[in-house]
Design goal:
Elements: E1 4-8, H1 13-22, E2 28-32, H2 49-64, E3 67-77, H3 98-108, E4 118-128, E5 134-145, E6 161-163, E7 168-169, H4 175-181, H5 183-199
Parallel strand pairs: 1-2, 1-3
Antiparallel strand pairs: 3-4, 4-5, 5-6, 6-7
């Protein structure tokens, strides 16, 4: 039985699966906010990925009384001046879905040639204890926005984000392969020493 518990501050099953896989080997029971139905949602009022990650992690840690990990991430498209950035999840407006967000990006880029469709996924991982002490780590993956969705794995903008060195979108990668190159994988590997230290491992 693990000596410690850790809550991932999200209800997004895709994120939970990715983070849980990347925490493999750490002796900790990994939970998600789905297992704490009494915890209310928190407003993501930050202007940066780091600010939002800390807001989410601190809220989850204080509400559950255990160490929390939160990810705030999104896609920055150069031809769109870095948008959607921190509003990636709600880019297409109220009631946004992965499909409507992807469609909006493709519509905005419809006349943009391949060599100008450069983009990056950014992830900031925040680790926060119940006392409110938080630390962050960042990961980035450079890529290109495709002309149409490709692949059926993943979530969010994964079907549109091509990793040039692999010739595949995130949505065409298996979880292990995606985690080896992804922004979230890189951020979590950078956060691992923080986690171990805060767990006392």
């Amino acid at each position: 039985m693990p000596a410690s518990r850790l809550v991932i501050a999200t209800h997004n099953k895709g994120k939970v699966d990715e983070i849980r896989a990347l925490l493999d080997g750490i002796d900790v029971e990994v939970l998600s906010l789905a297992e704490f139905p009494h915890v209310p949602p928190v407003d993501e009022t930050g202007l940066t990925f780091a600010e939002n990650a800390v807001i989410k992690a601190r809220h989850a840690a204080e509400a559950t009384g255990i160490l929390a990990v939160a990810d705030d991430s999104g896609i920055e498209v150069d031809a769109l001046g870095g948008r959607p950035g921190v509003i990636s999840a709600r880019f297409s407006g109220q009631g946004a879905t992965d499909e409507s967000n992807n469609r909006k990006i493709l519509d905005l880029l419809k006349d943009v040639p391949f060599d100008r469709r450069t983009a990056r996924f950014v992830s900031v991982i925040a680790v926060c204890d119940p006392a409110g002490r938080a630390e962050t780590a960042t990961g980035v993956c450079e890529g290109v926005v495709t002309f149409e969705p490709r692949g059926t794995s993943g979530f969010g903008y994964d079907p549109l984000f091509l990793v040039p060195q692999l010739g595949k979108t995130y949505a065409e990668l298996g979880l292990e392969e995606k985690n080896s190159v992804s922004h979230r994988g890189r951020a979590l590997r950078a956060a691992r020493p923080i986690l171990l230290r805060m767990l006392g491992a």
